[in-house]
Amino acid sequence: LYFIAQMTSCPRVSFRRRCHYATRSNRIRMVRTPGNKLTVQRNRKRSQGIHTPWVLGHKRIGGTKALNHTDSRTSNSNGKTVSRAYGGVLSHEQVKDRILRAFLVEEQRLVKRVATAERKYRKDKQRSALKNKRKTDKKSAIAKRVTGKAAPAKKAAPAKPAATTKKVAKK
Question: What is the pTM of this model?
Answer without folding.
Answer: 0.54
